[in-house]
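User: My advisor, Dr. K., asked me to get a structural model of this assembly before our group meeting. I'm new to this, so sorry if the format is off. These are the inputs:
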Amino acid sequence: MLTVEHVTKQFQETLALNDVSFSMENGIYGLLGPNGSGKTTLMRVLTGVLAPDGGRVRYDGIDIRSLDGQYRDLLGYLPQQFAMYEDFTGEKFLRYVCDLKGIPRADARERIAESLPIVGMAGEEKKKIRKLSGGMRRRIGIAQALLNHPKILVLDEPTSGLDPSERIRLRNYLLNLSKNRIILLSTHIVADLESTAHHLLLLKKGVLTAHGAPAELLQKLSGQVFTLFCKDEELMQIQQQYVVSAISSEEGGNRVRILADNPPPGARQTPPSLEDLYLYYYGETQDA
Amino acid sequence: MGKQILWELRKSFCRRSFLILFAIAALLTTWLTLQSAQSDAENMPSWGYGKEYMDLVQQYEGRTSEEFDEIRAEQEALRAAHPEAYDCEAPGLSDQEYQERVERSFAYDSFLFFLEPPNPYISPYPFFTRTYLKENSEEIDAAFCTHPDAYGVRALQKVEEWLAAEPVRTVIPPLGNQSYVTVGLLQSTDNGIVVPLFTAFLILLLAAPIYTQEAKSDMDALLLTSRRGKRQALCAKSIAVLLSCVTLSAVLQLLQLLCYSFFFSIPWEVSFASLNDFSSYLEGAYVGLSLGQVYLIYFGLRLLGSAALGLAVMFLSSRSKNPLLPIGAGALLYLYPFLFHAVSSRPWETLAEAVEQAGKGLPELLNWLQAASIAGSQAGGFLNVWFGYYVNFFGCPIPAFLPAVLFSLLVILFALFTPGFYRRRHLGRSHKRKEASAC
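Assistant: The format is fine. Below is the predicted structure of the whole assembly, which you can bring to the meeting.
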């Protein structure tokens, strides 16, 4: 079990994490929050890249600082903006990471061979990284995180730049992995978490505003999500009055999905989704 | 650890772009050195390495300051006896022609006694004068003064006559001229400058991205979260930089040596202290050492300087995300002695002199600052692997390098802690320390 206890991190005047506490067991944990909410900082604290100014992170009751190398052996980490070495080929880079992770050379080949198909990069490993597209680089990044069969997998926006089929493939793979691993992933694509996350963590300006199983969190929105049909001229007024999570054009008007305590006449209640939940906590603007 | 070092070498030294630059630098070094050596060989006067000359050179090996004083006294007497010698300007030659003619021959050594006052920075060049001026003063007078319009040509003829020289081209390959070779190999003047310049340039390009590329690509996060990345990989960086810088410097120096070997048979066994061009810097240094031994010392010191510069730049790299910062700071460190030389109102002088001055007069602080600046420039001069004019600043023989060696070793020692600084910068203070302070 990985436990985060009252973790605080400050960068000059900015309080990036403010007394964050939660714990994680095997399963997929989705970290949600707008830009600047502290997601990456939290991940860097969890991986030991950053030391918290206050609080601590424990793994099975032991401070990760004390575990040091043993803890790093358990980790697989995909940083957010991960450029790698452009002169290396994908395979060479993975061999390098194997050496960094202390994987014996004999095993390294096997691990690389098994990780590349997972991310759909089999056959592309001889290409120089500089010649790979953003999505392919991301996939190599994910592959390196998996090389040491980590017990704790921390993925910072793993699906950004991936095409839909790759996202689905990765989601399914992570779901399989999560049976005996802790997986923490942050993403802006809420749909990635909808079908996979066992637990959600919602950060806002460094504060953990909510956490729990998606169903529990969605329960809070029960009875607050509606759909209604409106004409074009009414749309503006509805957008001003309610939090609108989706608009789709239909013949003669628009189908609008809104969050509301007091819905307008004609609105029909509908089950909440994670996007509704995101809007509920963060509003429609990034810095809400 | 071996694997990590190999990876770090692949990332820095074995980058294709760097290898191309290295190859260009090596080719340029070869080409410029060949040009220089060829030019030296063509311009070498035949009498420069005649037996008589060699005998004279050997005669003054291990000379003492008393002997210098004796020689200076002789010069003064000669100049007093021939006051007209100071007026011996060649009416038919322009200044440039005069300089070219004079500087291309060892007759210049003789001219200096007549044309220039004694100068502590340009030594008395005693080899010819002590014997020849004593015995041939009248002929010299005739050659230099009674026929001033022809003294350049006549002087050369006279000296060649005196030394019964062999023809120029036939003696160059087997014997070589220590002085020319030594200037090319050891001094920073003329084309010899290319080696330290190229070495420094390559070191800056090699060491500056060592940490900045990790920060730029966010690989630092991966390094610090992997089993061997946090310690071994960071230590491997220091070792890789050390190896790379030493290799760079060694390859370029050996290339230079190889090029000279095509034109000269380098007389490694000849006494270094007897070499004419170094007489002004020696003041008793290198007594008893051959050219080969001194070259080895220089070679080693240049490797040390290269390693120190590389590691210093690597340390700067760990503090920045932009490689331009360590490149700029490293270049400044390299060029500092020359900038100091350019802007200082006082020329090169010994630290001892500056310290002595510091105790006198009102602007004491200024003098102390000057002394500190000189010490810094000497240490910096060592760092930048450019030794020609730093041979004897501390007024001692070989141990004169001691402060500079210590400085370089300190730089290396400090830079070897870079991984620790780097981790500390990322990870901040340890929990234990924080807890202790909280308690």
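One thing worth pointing out at the meeting: Chain A touches chain B through 31 residues (CB under 8 Å).

User: Perfect, thanks a lot.
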